[in-house]
Amino acid sequence: MDIAFPYRVDGTGRTAAAESDDAHIRELIEQVLFTVPGERVMRPDFGCGLLQLVFAPNSEALAATLQALVQGALQQTLGTRIRVDDVTAHSVDATLTVAVRYTVLRTQSTRTASFVREVPA
Fold first, then answer.
1. Cα–Cα distance measured from residue 17 to residue 46, given in angstroms and rounded to the nearest whole number
2. Which CATH number covers residue 35?
3. What angle do CA 26, 27, 29 make, to 5 degrees?
4. Would you give the end-to-end CA distance of the chain in angstroms?
5. pTM, whole model, 2 decimals?
6. pLDDT tens per residue, range 28-80
7. What are phi and psi for residue 117, nearest 5 degrees?
8. Domain count along the chain
């Protein structure tokens, strides 16, 4: 059983399970994207700290940095489950939108997951 993210309790009072393997992989990607390295005590290298770059000036260099950062973090953490095919990131004001196109290695199926986060000022 894969635990649902964010953590919650189901109707029976037990830890909720992820709806499907695809949903679980999407939830894992979200955790990697929005966790700051060092935030997890026992896994200090987990995450990519994407939200720290939201207020950086938009440029082609920032877009390339975001793509490399996300791709590297996902490959390091989920490289046995997925192959990252493409990453795009856009920030407008305090809103960050990231799209990740990936291939699930077990099934060789291609998926796209989009994530939107608003950063408090």
1. 22
2. 3.10.450.40
3. 65
4. 38
5. 0.81
6. 999 999 898 888 889 998 998 777 776 666 667 777 788 888 899 999 999 99
7. -135, 135
8. 1
